[in-house]
Amino acid sequence: MSTSGVRVRIAPSPTGEPHVGTAYIALFNYLFAKKNNGTFILRIEDTDATRSTPEFEQKVLDALKWCGLEWSEGPDIGGPYGPYRQSDRKDIYRPYVDKIVANGHGFKCFCTPERLEQMREAQRAAGKPPKYDGLCLHLSAEEVTKRVDAGEPHVVRMKIPTEGSCRFVDGVYGPVEIPWDAVDMQVLLKADGMPTYHMANVVDDHLMKITHVARGEEWLASVPKHILIYQYLGLEPPVFMHLSLMRNHDKSKLSKRKNPTSISYYSALGYLPEALMNFLGLFFIQISEGEELLTMDQLAEKFDPENLSKAGAIFDIQKLDWLNGRWLREQLTEEDFMQRVLEWAMENNRIRDGLKLSQSRISKLGELPDLAGFLLKSDLGLTPEAFAKVKSTPEEILEVLNQVQPDLEKMPEWTVESIEAELRASADRLGKKLKVVVAPLFVAVSGSSRSLPLFDSMAILGRSVVRQRLKVAAQVVASMVGSGK
User: Fold this and answer.
1) Residues 106-142: tens digit of each pLDDT
2) Omega of the bond prior to 83 within 30 degrees of 0, cis?
3) What distance in Å separates the CA atoms of residue 215 and residue 27, rounded to the nearest whole number?
4) End-to-end Cα distance, the chain
5) Is the pTM of this model over 0.90?
6) Which residues are catalytic?
7) CA distance 323 to 265
């Protein structure tokens, strides 16, 4: 194969704060394209209409640009194989689904969500992995037509072979074999006419002439479904490459429930994008000790996709701190450093908005660090003593923190108004007055009971920083429960 024909893509879903894992996969694809004189493409996979938002799509674009990644085709710049947003491609997929059904490889399923949930519960209770039981697989053509004409909601599912295994060669794992009886009869087209991820993924990769699909190893089990769709459509599949997941030191999956995972969190705390990409890029290359500090061009030069580790990539925050410190000290001139500091402080108008809120609350400028310094801190150094002026008991404070965290997580927008509305709703759910809920949050977010207005402060800090501060506060307060503090 001519390396000049290599086309790879990153295809994130705009359903939340962009994850550092997205940067990890994007960087691999970017380096792969750079190494092979190929094309790197950005595609937005927003088939999940209930969770995808324009706000999160913009955050994806901003985060990847902050990382220093550049794409040749995408929703913001267009290209010869657009549109590059799946919701804009809705009409493209239906003929491919119809072809699969017409050739006898797919079928219409009329099972209700309630019936499917009962089926899964029964399977779990019997110790079996939950998957579709094939109830609608053998409906007669007359029955199907009758129910469709009656307007009965339905989806389209793919048929799965009943015997044997799917065998393929993965670019990282080598030969892989997955039994067909472990593969579910995947929904291809949802009742609202939108394709599922699997269907849209295959069609888009084909139409965009993607030659290599590099993604996280959690998608390895989906390859049989994708290979089947390619076969059912008479298309040639790309080369699949599944990268080891980033993990914590205890080998558990890197997730926002345990650690900060949002790219915006690392940006807000003052990590340099070059240092973060340097850190992630080390997972894809072989180097000797002392060669760790590498630019993007140097990473591309040393990049070797033929020699990737199958072991989990350990997200070592201490190593990232060490690399970031070296970048600050060794790679920036004094002028560069000053400029980076100013850019960081002004990010998302952090300083400007903080100073606006501070003006009416100080009598001299020297009070600013104590009042607004929390907006720039990477660690508040929160202790049990910080909650001393909160009148609620540790148990009550912990109840508030445990209620507020998931409530804030589900918010589609992050504004002063939406934060206030959600916290008022949280107070109602807890049966408490708003001021009782707000008091411990002041401490959790700012480290002090006297600070800038809470809702404004949370909006300035951003969702990812607030998430982490509430998590740390919950750990501190949990240590107080039953201790008499």
Assistant:
1) 999 999 999 999 999 999 999 999 999 999 999 999 9
2) yes
3) 11
4) 68
5) yes
6) 256
7) 17
